[in-house]
Structures are given as C-alpha cells and as structure tokens.
Amino acid sequence: MRILQACAELFPLLKTGGLADVAGALPPALRAAGADVRVLLPGFRPMLEGVTELTPVAELDPPAGLCPPESGARLLRGRLPACGTPAYLIDAPRFYLREGGPYADDAHRPYADNHLRFALLGWAAAALAHGLDPDWQPELVHAHDWHAALAPAYLNAAARDGKPPPSVFTVHNLAYQGVFPGSAFAALGLPDAQFDMHGVEFHGQLSFMKGGLYFADHITTVSPSYAREIQAPEQGCGLDGLLRDRAHALSGILNGVDETVWDPATDALIAARYEAGHLAGKRRCKTALLRELGLARTARAPLFCVVSRLTEQKGLHLVLQALPALRARGAQFALLGSGDPALEAGFADAAAADPDGIAVRLGYDESFAHRLIAGSDVILVPSRFEPCGLTQLYGLKYGTLPLVRRVGGLADTVADTRLETIDTDATGFVFDRFSADGLISAADRALALHARKADWKRVQQRAMQRPSGWGRAADEYLALYRQLLS
C-alpha cells in the first residue's frame, strides 16, 4: 500500500505545534505496520537542511498563476534521518526560503502569498498521485490540516477517466482554516466550478479547510470526541453543516505518543530516567527541576505545570485566575509557553511577585519541556476546546497527572479520579465548566490525592501504564486506507 502524507511541518525538523509531532510519528508507525509511506513537505530551510540524500526528481509545472515557470520550482527526494522515511521536498526558494517563520514574518504578520505557498503543496501532492515521480506513485493521498487541504481539490480537478486516487484529510484544529479573499482563487488553477458553496467558497471567501472537507473521500480528526463536537455550532467554526452532511465519511482516530521521543525510561533530556515500577528517578527529576527554576524545595508541595501556547483556547486565563488559590493551598507552579502578550505579562508578573512558588519561561524549549513535564506532579490542560492534545499524553506517560477539562481528546484520554475510580481506571483529574472555579475544584481533588501517597502512586502508575504508542492509531489508519482503496 503506497501512501503519501502531505503536511507543512514535521518534528524534529520544524515544529510550531502538535501537527509536527503527529507528522513525525505517524509515517514510521505506518511503515512499521507494512505500508510504503512517503512524506511531502514544503522546502523550508530546516527541511532542506534536515532531509538527507536529496536528489532532483522533476521540474514543477503548476498553473502559471500559482507559480510562474521562471521560478525554477522543482521536486526533490531524500530521506528523513530520524526514522528513515522517504521524503519529497518542494524546492521553491521564492516561496519557502524567508527570514521569518513558516507562516508569518518576524513581526507575526501572515505572508500575503500564503494562499500560493500552500496551494503549491496541495498541487504537488496531486501531481505525485498522477505520476510526477516515474519511480513511485501513491495509491492514496493523506493531507494534514489547512496547509495541505487543497490536495483533494487538485486530485478532483485532475481526475482523468473517472474517479481520482482516494484521499484522506485530517483536521488537527478546525479553528485554523486558511481563509483568503475570494479574489485569490483565480491564481490557483482550479476549475471555476470549485468556487462554489459545494467546493472551496466560504461566505464569498476562499477556504482551504472547506476544500479539504468537501473534496476528500474521508475526513478524520485526531480524537473521536472532537469528530462529534465539530458537527455542532459551538465548535464547528461555521463548517458544522458541511460536517454533518459528511458525517458518514467522518471519524476520529486518537493520536499517540512518539515513544522514541517521549518515554521517561529512555529520555536522555531529563535528570534521571524512571518507569512505573521504579519512580525514584521521578523524584530526582523534581529536585533537579526545582533547583533549576529557583523554586523553594518543599518536598510535600505538589508542582503544577503548563507547557502550552498562551491562548484563550487553551484556557490559560483560567490558570492565571486560579494561581492565587493554588498558592494559598500550598501548590507551586511552573510554565513554559508563549503567545498572547497579556497572558505573557500576567504570568511574568505573577512569577516576579512570588519567585519561591512560581516560575515562568516565555518561549519554547523542547529540552526544557521534557524536564518540566518529568519533574512536575500535575500538568494543566484546561482547554475551551481541544482536538486531541498531546501534553496530557506526555503527562500520562511521565506520571505527571493531567488536570483537564472534559472536552475533545482530553475527555478521550484522561479518566477522572474519584473515590469509586481510584482502584479501576483513574488517571487524572477532569472538570466540566469552563471557569476558574471548575479548575480550582479539580485542583483541590488533586491536592487531596497528592497528600495520600499510596493512592497517588496507584493512579500515577496506572497513568504511566496506559497504552500510548502510535501502533493502535497506525492500525486504524491502515484499516481506513484499505477500505478506501477497496
């Protein structure tokens, strides 16, 4: 089974969020299960520098409005060294070699030509499916998030003699849709008929996300609960009607954890390695973390942490509101993240006012994220909505019990701890109402459990032993691929 995965970022080469972790872990898991998988990526500088054995495959000849012939765009083939997966890169310097980030400049302004930069990704995926590489042709295209969402539209447009090769489109976050002015459609080289309510048109604008949802043969999300939630207005982001119409072709497949990267038994980035049956290393991780952060070393004080983008979606304003109550109850707090300037300032001010109990690092540091999760007791993920969430999965794996809101993938992965569940399925703490009071109530239960060391250890060990790898998800994707190909 020959599968092409098309996406805009991939760990460890380029990461702005959870999409990169999924894109880096799913292909090798599919290969381990017997699929012939290759990855298509934009030729951002980190990709060109990180993919090995690069050789030219073909000159690209997309529609002139999308990428003029004189641009010299070409397709390269190489290998991802971390997992050995073959990779294609779109070598288009005028589009991808820029001084800013992958989607916006250094001032955080989205590039004005993003509709062209990522339409080229979708076009190239379709071109590969129609034989662009004479040595390898995918039987199915799997496109990830809005950046690659036009791949199914281009497959549909280029279909010859009947049905195009099947496609799967995975929604990682419906809130980010790739919406552009309707006038941008003319440059893409797609049939005029596709700029329609039954196509890529969205209230007079061009929506990449809608194109993927409409033209893909099957839609997946990254958790079963999120697949249900986005069919309702609250989380459907204006596309719930289309998703309800396509409910027969919509399913949720829960993300996994890349255990070659996230496993406390083998993690070289943490102070001491440990596993469920031998937790002394976790205690050493906490001691080292408190020393690194300059927090008071109080053995009985639980350490709550956050590793997140600082946005309203992630519920970080609730954490900021709850901090005084957490500190009054004896808990400590540490955060790694960046985003909304007001949230950054609020957390920085809290840390400055209480350096013994609160530590904040603005920005992102992959190595420190490992140390922070390994050394903390509770990880907070109080999201307003959450397609899947990965940090709670890392928390489970590292015995850092997640405190989450009952929504999306958080509801699918964390079982609430109550008196009647301590001996059965409890793995963390869950609250329902999106409020600081709801978060504090769940934190009170976490603090009460932390004071009962035997019960805490029981829940902690169960969390760590929860199956978390990508093998199960890979099997579900392969079953879906087989169904579409049959």
Explain how this protein is built.
By secondary structure, this protein is α/β, with parallel strands linked by helices. The protein has two domains: 2-256 and 470-485, Glycogen Phosphorylase B (Rossmann fold), CATH 3.40.50.2000; 280-465, Glycogen Phosphorylase B (Rossmann fold). Helices cover 37% and strands 18% of the residues. It has helices at 18-32, 45-50, 93-96, 114-129, 151-157, 208-215, 224-229, 233-236, 240-245, 280-293, 316-328, 341-353, 366-375, 391-397, 408-413, 436-450, 453-465, 471-485; strands spanning 2-6, 36-42, 52-59, 74-79, 86-91, 140-144, 167-171, 179-180, 201-202, 205-207, 218-221, 250-252, 303-310, 332-339, 358-362, 378-381, 401-405, 429-431. The strands form three sheets. Strands 3-4-5-2-1-6-7-11-12 form a nine-stranded mixed sheet, sandwiched between helices. It starts with a strand and ends with a helix.
Provide key terms for this protein.
486 residues, alpha/beta, Rossmann fold, 2 domains, 9-stranded mixed sheet, 6-stranded parallel sheet, 37% helix, globular
Quick one: overall form? globular
Oligomer: single chain
Uncertain segments are none
Say what the CATH topology of the largest domain is: Rossmann fold
* Average pLDDT over all residues: 95
Q: Specify the CATH class of the largest domain.
A: Alpha Beta
Widest sheet, order of strands: 3-4-5-2-1-6-7-11-12
> Which structural class fits the helix and strand makeup?
alpha/beta
Q: Can you identify the CATH superfamily of the largest domain?
A: Glycogen Phosphorylase B
Major beta-sheet overview: 9 strands, mixed
Total beta-strand segments: 18
Distance between the termini: 11 Å
What is the C-alpha radius of gyration, as a whole number of Å? 23 Å
Task: Report the β-strand fraction as a percent range.
Answer: 15-25%
Question: Treating each run of at least 4 consecutive H or I residues as one helix, how many helices?
Answer: 18
Helix content: 25-40%
Integer tally of domains: 2
CATH architecture of the largest domain: 3-Layer(aba) Sandwich
Domain Starch synthase catalytic: 2-244
Protein name: Glycogen synthase
Binding site for ADP-alpha-D-glucose: 15
Keywords: Glycogen biosynthesis, Glycosyltransferase, Transferase
